[in-house]
Amino acid sequence: MKKKSLLLIVMMFVLTSLSTINAQEKKKLIGDYLSISGWMNIQYDYESQLQNGGESLDVIANTFNVRRARLDFKGNLCENVEFRVQGDLAGTPKLVDGFVKVKLQKYFNIQVGQFKIPFTFENPQSPLTLEGIEYAQVISKLSGYSDISGVKTYSGGRDVGVMIYGDLFSFEHNGKEIPILTYKLGVFNGNGMNNKDANLAKDIAGSIEVCPGIKGLMLATSYYNGNYKLDNTFEINDTTKLHFYEQNALRNRLTFGGKYENGRLTVRSEYIMGDTEMANKEGIYTLKSDGFYVTGGYWFNIMKSQRIRPVARYDFFRQDVNNPEKNSTYYMVGIDWWPYKNLRLLLNYTMKDKPGFDYMGNLWQAQLSVKF
Prior knowledge:
Blueprint: H1 2-18, H2 30-33, E1 34-50, E2 57-78, E3 81-88, E4 94-105, E5 108-116, H3 137-142, E6 158-173, E7 176-188, E8 203-210, E9 217-235, E10 241-261, E11 265-280, E12 283-298, E13 300-302, E14 306-318, E15 327-340, E16 343-353, E17 361-371
Antiparallel strand pairs: 1-2, 1-17, 2-3, 3-4, 4-5, 5-6, 6-7, 7-8, 8-9, 9-10, 10-11, 11-12, 12-14, 13-14, 14-15, 15-16, 16-17
């Protein structure tokens, strides 16, 4: 009932706010309220892994790939109503973002449509600003990219729903107002991008970010409470099968993190834990997972318009906290180079300590990003 009440209240605010737009306002040219931009990620991956015993080399990847090719439309219908439509033409064309923001006050605003859920620091971050080419393992596995629940939905950390957000309290620094507390609270389908809900339940995601009086320093916690459709069949013997058809299974997540950014230095770390109901031959059980990462980088200016940043990340994930053989640790180092304002080159090397292998895996990646 609480989820339904929250959804009804937010929808009433949306309708009320939209009704305040002046219908008699003179028509504007498209260029007055619409901007069009885009960007591409062109990538190369080479990944290798020595088999146990070190007798043979297994090449897992050796490929070029146009990973993303985005077109982005943004605009303002009026002073307090914004919209965004972003599509991806790489692979199968799809809608990535499609939402409307109703800006009422700095402490209360509404967003409706498809967008990134308010969960963790790293999930809402664009690939164009991320320090490395890949998101951390725990972000991918517990934040909707490649969820351990096995839901076959490409979501990119996004979902369809409605969210309220705003800034509370503030302090001044060098004449600028810096919010002390930022909150976000949303209700979502829980079934990823471009999908209707697969069950009658709704998922809730929310975050609180606090700036403790130091510009650039942010502490945060976020929570996700949701359900997904469990659809599995297990053969017990020749005559008996165990069915889990369209049963709701819990998918809950909790995070704690902190980051510091001062224009040159970036340091960020998050710990995420999750409970995911799964099924096997014995029935439904709760898989407990967790992980954390620490990432950092420092910008150096070279010549007039060029910037370069060495980056590094320690990335640890436990898919099953009760089974150490499921642990995996990645060590990444790289270079983030912007030779021009709209051109970026990322070079990453990741050493992977993966379960079930006696030797480290090696992943070499290069990614060229172009903005227009």
